[in-house]
Design a protein that fits this description.
By secondary structure, this protein is α+β, with helices and mostly antiparallel strands.
Length: 328
């Protein structure tokens, strides 16, 4: 046996909201082509989002446990364990791996050994995307919401001082003015992109000047608003994978040990207690639940983990799983 296989079947209990830096809206993946050659795309939960949630749950638990014993992690350890970042390995010119040093580092830090860190310590835990079951194409849904301001309830002003009411009204006026300027900037940026694409230097220069002038006006509004410059009243839209979406994915652990096995059971238990992926959890997004079947690469059954519901995971191990957990 060279690896453990965690086959995941899950369902979104609520809509799931995730954003990636290189995509607008919910992450989409190409899974094929139509007869006319157009791409077929589906929503999916990226492996980075799922893996990041698992890693954070485990590391934060371990940090809290150590802190309770009076052991406080330094900043370097937090970065390497929580984010897998090692600036020293990522910035050095010589990318050759020091095998002896890597072995020593793995032995001294179990989290790094399993989850990897920087360019020097490769992960033994490999995480797959969570994809819609059966190749089903899932389209994201849009959810709109309004962030309200004080004037949503006029009775509030009855308990405020005259000076604060006047300050609110001034702020409200400046905020509306700033919002209108923002719309103009958005329109100019769209035209600016088109001009740059057409390589129209004269138009680019003119639009850039207009944009800079509008930004100065926005800054002036914000300056007059003082410490209350953050906008509270706004309409926003959230793009999310629909609730009830069935998902499947696979996570594997190379060269597993009984200690690794225990770590992964703990990790999935922590996730089960807070089964939220992505953002906007305070608005009811991100919850999933499901079952993880554990086997090895020879097909032997090690058991299953039921997760979700904000409760401890329900772990059922077979005799093979129990023997492995015991180090036999």
């Amino acid at each position: 046996m060279n690896k453990l296989v965690y086959n995941i079947r899950a369902k979104t209990v609520s809509p799931v909201s995730i954003t990636l830096p290189d995509q607008d809206g919910f992450p989409m993946m190409t899974i094929g082509r139509n007869a006319d050659g157009t791409l077929v795309k589906t929503a999916y939960i990226p492996a980075t989002s799922f893996r990041g949630k698992l890693r954070h749950a485990l590391v934060l638990f371990q940090m809290a446990a150590d802190a309770a014993k009076g052991l406080v992690w330094d900043l370097f350890r937090i970065y390497e364990c929580l984010l897998g970042q090692d600036s020293q390995s990522e910035s050095k010119d010589d990318l050759r791996v020091d095998i002896a040093a890597t072995k020593k580092r793995r032995e001294s830090n179990h989290i790094i050994d399993v989850w990897g860190c920087g360019l020097g310590v490769s992960a033994r835990l490999k995480t797959g995307h969570l994809m819609p079951v059966g190749g089903v194409v899932v389209e994201p849904e849009s959810f709109s919401s309004v962030r309200k301001d004080l004037d949503a309830d006029a009775s509030i002003f009855e308990s405020m001082s005259k000076e604060d009411v006047e300050a609110f009204e001034k702020r409200n006026h400046l905020n509306a003015q700033r919002a209108e300027l923002g719309k103009k900037i958005d329109a100019i940026e769209a035209s600016l992109r088109a001009a740059k694409k057409e390589k129209d230097a004269k138009t680019v220069d003119a639009l850039t000047a207009q944009k800079d002038d509008l930004k100065k006006q926005v800054d002036a509004c914000a300056e007059q608003m003082g410490p209350m410059k953050n906008s509270t009243k706004s309409l926003f839209t959230i793009s999310a994978m629909p609730a009830g979406t069935e998902l499947a994915g696979c996570t594997t652990l190379i060269r597993p040990t009984a200690k690794d096995f225990e770590m992964m059971l703990k990790t999935f238990d922590l996730f089960s207690r807070d089964p939220i992926i992505g953002g906007n959890s305070t608005r009811g997004f991100g919850e999933i639940a499901g079952v993880i079947q554990i086997s090895d690469d020879d097909g032997a059954d090690y058991g299953a983990i039921e997760f979700g519901g904000h409760h401890p995971a329900k772990v059922t191990l077979t005799d093979i799983g129990k023997a492995f957990a015991a180090g036999k």
